[in-house]
Design brief:
Structural class: mainly alpha
Order of helices and strands: HHH
Strand content: under 5%
Largest sheet: none
Radius of gyration: 18 Å
Number of helices: 3
Shape: flat
Number of strands: 0
Length: 65
């Protein structure tokens, strides 16, 4: 669970910015989206493979530059 304490003299906007960064870093949003609906095992496998293909394409693009 992400917790951010407002420090002495810190603006609320600064604390909110730190909170958002911490939530994003801990992948809380991704986890909530993943549990928001049910995927059949076959669909989950297809999604996982598609993400792997996307990662590999991105990696190859980066290496060719």
């Amino acid at each position: 669970m992400a917790e951010v304490y407002v420090q002495e003299g810190e603006s609320l906007d600064g604390a909110l910015r730190r909170f958002k960064r911490k939530v994003q870093h801990e992948d809380i949003i991704k986890e909530v989206k993943r549990h928001s609906y049910y995927l059949k095992p076959g669909e989950k496998k297809r999604v996982k493979q598609a993400l792997a293909r996307k990662r590999n394409r991105k990696k190859m693009r980066r290496e060719t530059r």
